[in-house]
Amino acid sequence: xxxxxxxxxxxxxxxxxxxxxxxxxxPALVGSRPEDWGAVHDAHSRRIGLVVVAVYGxxxxxxxxxxLRGPYGVAPLVAVxxxxxxxxxxxxxxxxxxxxxxxxxxxxxxxxxxxxxDRVRAVAALVGLGAALLAWNAx
Length: 139
Description:
By secondary structure, this protein is mainly alpha-helical. The protein has 4 helices and no strands. The chain has one domain (3-138).
């Protein structure tokens, strides 16, 4: 499997995961009853952790290979940058918000920020997939 094959695969996995989170997982989480929040959020955190590690691990390997081996065209580098935005948004915004939500409960302003971060990640994942597809088609 070549570098662009791996980038396309990782991008598709990432986009599929992120769109599922955006359309299914977060609406269920945010829509849970306040009295159920602790149990629902704890279960979400336990279940999604391994998937996040697997998806972002594969994505990191693919992006690192592009940076180390190339190709260094616009499309592969846009894909890497877009996935970087998603990863940084997860690490710097979503993960800390989940920690805070776990401690203080479902505060409206925190949930609103989490949903904004989630939309940023969804757009970044789709841009990354589109750019990876363009790079793969051009190869």
